[in-house]
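Section 3.1: Structural characterization of target chains.
Under the original work plan, the team committed to producing a structural model for every single-chain target entering the pipeline before any wet-lab resources were allocated. The record below documents one such target. The sequence was received from the expression subgroup and is listed exactly as submitted; it comprises 139 residues.
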Amino acid sequence: MTKFLHTMIRVTDPDATVAFFRLLGIEEVRRFDNEKGRFTLIFLAAPGQEGVAEVELTHNWDPEDYSGGRNFGHLAYRVDDIYATCRRLMDAGVTINRPPRDGHMAFVRTPDGISVELLQDGTLPAEEPWASMPNVGSW
């Protein structure tokens, strides 16, 4: 039997990344500092999903370049209202790279450029300004 435990992404600014995930309703559930290894692990989960579907943020204390895919592809989260979620993110200064024109899916990026897919359970009717918004950058 295989059970999903967590997805790990490397981050350069843990505070900014934790704040980003809080905008999505994802909270820090535990943190470990490893002095000898010079890194911090921060585990995040949606309420009720602690220990089931978590994101592990790895912050290496010594600066590193995470080019070439060393920091990951994308994460996906189901949201209650994709329009309200995207509005909350935009109001906080987050760019919506792929707006929810279809009332079902959007893509945003963390402060470190990790792509996050947002999925509506089902599909909401098309709504402005989302229906006519173009993609911004890559997603």
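DSSP finds two helices and eight strands in the chain.
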